[in-house]
Amino acid sequence: MDQTILLGAGFTLFIVVALALDLGVFHRQAHVVGAREALAWTLVWVTLAVLFGIGIFLVRGGETAVEYFTGYVIEYSLSVDNVFVFTLIFAAFAVPRTLQHRVLFWGIAGALVMRLLMILAGATLIAQYHWVLYVFGAFLVFTGLRMLVARAGHEPHPENNVLVRFARRHLRVTDGFHDQAFFVRVAGGLAATPLFLALLVVEFSDLVFAVDSIPAIFAVTTDPFVVFTSNAFAILGLRSLYFLLAEAAARFRYLRVGLAMVLVFVGAKLLSAGFLHIPPLVSLAVVVSILGLAIGASLLRSVSPVTRT
User: Fold this and answer.
1) Are the C-beta atoms of 143 and 263 separated by less than 8 Å?
2) Which of 77, 128, 237, 274 could bond to 45 as cystine, CB 3.0-4.6 Å?
3) What is the pLDDT of residue 133?
4) DSSP letters along 97-145, please?
């Protein structure tokens, strides 16, 4: 327990320092994040996640490290869905590209807090009521099957989100943006800017995604430390992933099918845990294989020539 608390405190300090450096040093001035910068930061976050996994291997052993990497791969892959939704949010609120990083920064900071609370609550429930794992399993299978049969091309409308409607009814909202400010002083008091409305929807969308992703990682391990750290590294790398893939997210047309199959697999793993043990390394191999096939098929489809008659 002492070791877990020490590791948790050290990881929390790492997150705080990383976020402070991100906003206070590397992105102090608002600017458009280009593909080269996004690729560099993506490699940085993936490298840090891998190094952390190696550290887990050295401190906690191979099985825990495999569980961490499996959770990280699942969560990072599910993040591609977030990329598509973020694109819709920024388009709906006409957020300038120079301000998008600021919205994602605070959105992800809030997401880290929300997910930590959800993970602690989930771990507490599982510790007291083991049957909750079967509920998670059934939910994941249902969610995966629903993703498989969902109609393509159905796009949500972020501007009609319930939080946005509530904010517009109860807050003053300015017509335009005011640099990087979420709130500004106007005649009669404080007013929110459209940037704040975009942030609300980003936070709401991550909460919705967390409902799927957190049970998926609990299907891999019930260790709260492993669940949170794999979640956190995936979320920390989400901003750079967005700027890297925003223009090309639509090309990964089969990735959603792969993600759905992963959710069905981990859900089935939970439901069958009472009579079938699937080793962590096998789970990791299955998840990576499914996602690799989905990404490969998507890339082949995107580059294949279109024949005309």
Assistant:
1) yes
2) 237
3) 86
4) HHHHHHHHHHHHHHHHHHHHHHHHHHHHHHHH-TTHHHHHHHHHHHHHH
- Domain span at 196: 30-301
Q: Extract the tokens encoding 246.
A: 């925003």
Q: Is residue 10 assigned to a domain?
A: no
Digit-coded pLDDT (tens) for 57-110: 998 888 999 999 998 998 888 877 777 788 888 888 888 888 888 888 888 888
Place of tokens 């249902």: 142
Nearest CA-CA partner of 137 in 300, 40, 265: 265
User: Tokens for 253?
Assistant: 């047309």
Closest to 107 in 3D by CA, of 255, 28, 210: 210
Q: Tell me what pLDDT residue 307 has.
A: 43
Phi/psi of residue 183, nearest 5 degrees: -135, 145
User: Residue 9 domain-assigned?
Assistant: no
Radius of gyration, alpha carbons of the chain: 20
Q: What's the whole-number average pLDDT of the chain?
A: 82
| Residue at 44 is within a domain | yes
Long-range contacts, stretch 130-139, CB < 8 angstroms, 24+ apart: 133/218, 133/219, 133/222, 133/270, 133/273, 134/270, 134/271, 136/215, 136/218, 136/219, 136/267, 136/270, 137/219, 137/266, 137/267, 137/268, 137/269, 137/270, 137/271, 137/273, 138/267, 138/271, 139/215, 139/267
Tokens for 90, please give them: 């920024």
Judge whether 206 lies within some domain: yes
**CA pair distance 164, 185, nearest whole angstrom:** 20
pLDDT digits (tens, 9 = 90+) for 142-169: 888 888 887 555 555 666 677 788 888 8
pTM, to two decimals: 0.81
Q: Could you tell me if 79 and 294 are in contact, meaning their C-beta atoms sit under 8 angstroms apart?
A: no
Number of domain units in the chain: 1
